[in-house]
Amino acid sequence: MTPVLPPPVRSALLDALAVVAPVSCAGCGAPDRAVCPACVRALDAAPAVRGLDLPACDGPGGRVPAATIPVGCGAAYEPPWPALLSALKEEGRTDAARAMAPVLVRALAAVVTAADRAAADRRDPPLLEAVPVPSPAASIRRRGYAPVEVLLARAGVRPLRVGSLHRPPLRFTRRPADQAGLGVAEREANLHGSLVARADLSGRRVLVVDDVLTTGATLREACRAIRAAGGEAVACAVLAAVPARGRGRARRAPSSDGRSLCASDALAIHLPDASRPDGPEV
Question: In this structure, is residue 115 part of a structural domain?
């Protein structure tokens, strides 16, 4: 277990480290911290839960009906989120992931609570297993890591692995075009059929995890691939969501009661400690 340092001691150690290895805030450029205190405070928001409509799709047993599932959103995609995620994905700033991880924990907690309520009529439903939206192979080679996997690791979540090589469940069959500037229908068409499962997912209840929710096209495609492989896409979670326009406000998640919330088959997330910015890494 990682020891918990009092905030003044931790701050002093970070000041000393900044002298040896200078660093700047990935969110605003302020000196001496991977993510400065002001940006950390800006990340402290209540999570929200949105609905995501999944169209009917083909599954191993026939047609899988349309469904609506909850999406836990850790924060609104507003500053400093664009700079932080750009730094993580394009500048190798994995050191900033620690400050972002508590937001992902809160999003996971909010959506697991919503999924639990939706499954209240099921007796002893299987645990949810976290499946990150994959990065294209070329992006992983360029970066040396998958950003969503880094965020899950910092949040203490061990994602589902399949096969003898313990690989991520989803992979790209082709690289989609850049999504920037595409409308809702264009994003759906660009992504449709681009993901496939590496293994049979029958009997697995899956929670899909991504970094940002824009139109929902990426999450829908990941859920389609999971359902096509026999899995049940139960819910999704994202770090940040672009504010909804014309769809009403997302509902805020209920406050946590502190119980363990299982977001994978390997971990229980304990919210009171995991959501403290100055707490231990989980």
Answer: yes
